[in-house]
Structure formats: C-alpha cells, structure tokens
Design a protein that fits this description.
The chain has 770 residues and is an alpha/beta fold. It is 42% helix and 14% strand.
Length: 770
Amino acid sequence: MKTPVSTYRLQIRPELTLQDAAELTGYLRSLGIDWVYVSPILTAEEGSDHGYDVTDPSTVDPARGGPEGLAALSEAAREQGLGILADIVPNHMGVATPGQNAWWWQLLKEGRGSRYAEAFDVDWDFGGGKIRIPVLGSDEDLEQLTVVDGELHYYDHRFPLAEGTFADGDSPQEVHARQHYQLIGWRRADAELNYRRFFAVNTLAGVRVEIPWVFDESHQEIVRWFREGLVDGLRIDHPDGLADPEGYLARLREATGGAYLLVEKILEPGEQLPDTFDCEGTTGYDALADVDRLFVDPAAEEYLDSLDARLRDADAPADYEDMIHGTKRRIADGILRSEILRLARLVPPSMDLPADKVADAIAEVICCFPIYRTYLPYGQDVLVESIRRAAENRADLKAVLEDLTPLLLDSSGALARRFQQTSGMVMAKGVEDTAFFRYTRLGTLTEVGADPTEFAVSNEVFHERMARRQQVLPLSMTTLSTHDTKRSEDARARISVISEAVPEWELFLGTVQELAPIPDGPLAALVWQSIVGAWPADRGRLQSYALKAAREAGNSTNWTDPNQDFERHLAAAVDSVFDVPEVAAALANLVAELEPYGTSNSLSAKLVQLTMPGVPDVYQGTEFRDGSLTDPDNRRPVDFQARTSALADLDNGAVPLFTEEAAKLLVVSRALRLRRDRPELFGGYLPVAAQGAAADHVVAFDRGADRGGALTVATRLPKRLEREGGWRDTAIELSVNARDELTGATYGAGTVPLATLLEQYPVALLVPTD
C-alpha cells in the first residue's frame, strides 16, 4: 500500500479548479508536502463551494475542472513525486435541484416503482406512498404551483410529472395530487419528513450504499481513478451515517485495490476506532484536541469558571453534561424529530407500546449517549449503559425501555441498525452545532472532536497519548485546521493565551460589554474571543460569524424564528469594533497583549503537530498565519503567490523574526521536508524531559525508534513563563550532536540551556549530525 508522509488540503471549487491545483504542485513539493489532498470533486449542486452535495457520482465536476482537470492534477503530481488523497461522500447526495440529480429525478417521477427507490432511504408507508419534499413556504403555497413544459413548478423549483398524470384542463393542484411526491411546508420537515437526510439538511438525501448495486453505481467513477492510477487514497466523509460502516470499508478497500483510507470519525475521550474498521485511521480531530490543550494553562480553569457563572448570572458555571443532554433533547424533539419518529415506527405493533412513549424513550437513550454511535456488537456496553442512564433519568419510561432493550441490542434488526445511524446525527447537531456555541469559557476547547470539559493536558498525559498513537494508529491523520473547524489553529493559539491572561480578558470583556453590550453573556464571551482570535478581520466576516454563532447557540435567537431586536444589538456590537474608538482601542490593546504569546503558541502547536506520530495535514493557506472562523470563512481564497515568494526568500537565506508571518512558513517547510526526506528519523516516539525551574514550559520528544531521531522542542504557556522569570536554569540533555533545522545552529551532546536553544524561535527541530 502506498501511504502519505504528509498531506495538503485544497478546497477545489470553480475559483480553484483541479487545473489550478496542478499548477500548485511545484510549490507543494517545495514546501515539503508528500500528497495533495482534495475536497470532493464529483459533480455537485451548481454553485456549491464545498462539494459535499454530489448530484452525479459518475463524473468529475466540470465546474471543478472535469475529468481533464483530474488527469492534469494527477500528471503534475506524478512529475513532482506527489500522491493524491481524494475526499468522497458515500452517505448522501444533493437534491436541492432535482433536475441536476438524475437518480432523484427518476425517483420523484416513478416513485416506489423506480429502480432508485432502493437507493434512497424512504419510508414509503409513512408518506402514503409519496416522498415528502419540504420546499413550500407554507402548505397554502400549493396555490402557487404551475405546470410548465411537462413539469411541475413552484417558483424556481422544478419537479417531474409521472407518466399519464397530466391532461388539459387539470389544475396544477390536481396534477400535484397524482405525483409520487408531496410538496409540503418547510416547517413540517422536523416531524413529518420520510426520507433520511444528512443531519437536518433537507437538501442532502441519504443513500443506501450497503446495497451492492448502489455501491457499484455510486463508486464507478471513484474506482476508475484507482484503475487508471489517478488517485492514491481516500478520505471518507461521515461514515457514521452509513448502515454498515465496517462492511462499506471492506468493500471499498477491495474496490480500490487496497488503497490508503481515512474516515472522518470523531472519537470521544477514551474511545478507540473499532478494530474491525479496515482503514488507516481518522482525519485527525482527536489529535487536534490533544495538541490544543498543551497550550492552555490549567491554573485558569477556576477563574474562567467563575467568570462563566457571572456571565450567566448564576451561582455556578455551566454544567456541560447537563447542557449537552438538554441540547441533544432539543435536537431530538426538534429538527430531528422525524428521525426519532421513524425509529419508533420500527417497533412492532404487536408489542402494544404507546407510540409517544416509544419515541420519548428512544430519544432519551440517544441523549444519554457519550459517543457518536456504536457498531454493534462493538460498543454494546455503551448502549447498555446509555439505556440504564435513560431509565435513571426518566423513571416513567423504565418499563418501555426494558421492552425496547432487546430490539436496540439486536444488530441484525432494523431498529438497532437505524438507531446507530441516528445517534450520531443528534450528537453532531446537539453538541458540535449547539452546545459548542453555548459552552464558552474558552473557545479553544469547543473544537470539533474535543471534549470541552478537559481543560488542559500535562506533558505526561500528552506523551502517553502520543506513544499510543505511534503504536496503534501511526498512519492516522493529524491536523490543526480543517474546513470544519470552528476557529482556525492560529485563532485558537491566540485565544489560548487568555488562559494566561484572565485579568486582562475580564477587563476587556467588561469594557466592551459596557460600551457595546451583547445581551447574552455566554454568547458575548464567545463572540469577543472569536473577534480577538481572528483580528485583523473585516466587518463582513465578523458580522457573518457572530450571526451564525448566535443562531446556532439558539438561546437568544435562532435560524427559524430570528429575534430581530437581539440581532440588532449583536450587529451593533460587531460594528462598534470599527465605529466606536473606545472599543477599537480596547481590542487593539488586548490583541497587542496576547499577540507575541499567541504567535509562540502557533509555532509550537504547528511543530508538534507536524512532527508527532501520524500523517500531518496542512489546511490550505495555514503555512502563513490564518485567523479564520467557522465555515464559510475558512474557505476564503488563498494567496499562493505570496507564499511561493516567501518560501523562495527563506530558501535564499532570509531569516524572519519569530513574530513575522514567514516564521510559520519556516517551521512548516523545514518540518515537512525533514519528514519526507529523512523518514528514518521518525520511527518511534520517546518523551524528552527537561530539568530546571521552567521544565513544565517545554514539551519535547524524540521521534527515533531509539534515541537519535528528530527531536522536537516547543514552548508551552509562554506568557506565564515570562512572568515567572523565563527559562532560567532549565535545560535538556542531548544524547548526540545535533543541528537545528530552523536556525542552522549546532549543539554538542550533553546539557543545552533552553535559553540558548530557544533564543531565536520558541521552537527547535533538532537533527543528529553524528
């Protein structure tokens, strides 16, 4: 199997096509990258800038460069010695515009008799034999239907007509009543939809790739890539939505000739990837969480908890476990109610259980889940414990839960199978997309794949986790920024300094809340932290982020029924950064206070991520400082010319200050080149302890199978380090003579003071010279 040493993620879109990517391969090679990693490239909804709404799995998207673009990228990559990792989407298809999706169009036209009725996951009996399509403003909008050129139209929406269902003189409403679909008001989707979606996105319909012919047809183009040697590995989007992830991976491995595979899987603390998953690992959210927490000061937890309580006008800070149970119930009883009701309909009528109690009980079990899903029989103990907790929470449901338990544990049954597909939906929407915008004591902690109750990790804990990663998942991806992260790595690096500057943060927050109040204390903390982390940023970016954060949190406003008065206050607060001199000054002062330490965190976290066990990924553009916030902000265009020029300057001898943007490019390029060109230096993992007064402020590890590999040295908690007097007598022991890849300085074996080693940069990457 061909495996990557490192990857570089490119967001392929009309503004950055596959042909454009081909032209970047020389730069990526020079940067030190081993594989190019591309976002989904199959034909997607027209205008999609992410590609996860595939409408035609049989073609490479013409808007993204088409098959000729993939061929061009592949040829250019081969010339540069690069591999290609491609992102694929097996769980769902885009159906926003039925005319663009031949599978969906045929299904709507022919209904249950369509060949594609088996491909999509529709509960036909619940819909009276019709697919419910939630596109109307309200049910009364049926009056707006028209029949045009043999199609049913609702404003710009077009739908097919079944054969023989239209005759001259028929009203559009009569024609609609004869179709295999029913157009309904969009608000009815929450409880009345009858097809599986991606989470709560009505325009992404679930696909049943467990059906052999569905797998074959939806993967024929992907298999061609491997048959023709165009692509080397795959990243699988959202495998938790599949009925049989284990079976899917086994079939995909076979279809691709044993190619390198990664799954987008969020592992909760202590959770391991099932041994039965035939893949090399995950896309790295778990690694991101471990690295971030190295740079959070554990001493701040009590103080930030106290501030959180005051912001909530409460006696105690937010109880996270209680919060996520509530936010998950909000989702299960709200936008994913239709999924819960579908599970309830799978309980045999012969059991004579009240339907409302069944739905309530199933929702409660899901809301007690500590992980995204089980893969029965793997994880059965988690399910049993969740049922026990549900019965403990809701004594009124205990008898129903006892009756449901055998069904939920029967891995061959429809209820258990679909329950496993559903629990992850509720987790993602209730935790990532709601609680993470409510639990706001420190924004670094609420990142995809993280447990925000784990405030910080010590060197010892970090080393234990890295040793296990090296032993169990050495080819799993590591990352710090992705297209899904709520805040980019550099924004989080600066936000983490708040844990070392709590008084300064409290003063700033009090000042701006007095001058430009956001009338929701926890949200105010999140928004102002995000502005601090992203700064400098333009008005439009910050307004878009703040509105999205507020609506996702759902406390003071929401997506479906926005609170316009609150949103005016929120917009005014963001505007104040640009329009109120006192707010602008307060922001500038805090950013100036945090900036050098945030830069230290940024360089340190990046070097750790690039050299720790696993396959490091660099998200597009983050070889420079990048203060992006949540999507779509993190998909903005990247100035590759500036990066190419800066890399050339470094190679010509430029020596940037650690505070200059090129310093991060130096760290990224030198670490990536070393990993690619000297793999023998990265065969193991050994912690390296420092001695002295500031020993806790350095994380160091040797990547050799024994001593003598690449040695990473990075600064932790730099603001507190300075406050306590700097490195003083702190030193590390070198077992061999070494050279720093970043500065070129050489050191003899023996004791090396950290004040000397880290004089120029807060990090060092040492290579044996013997």
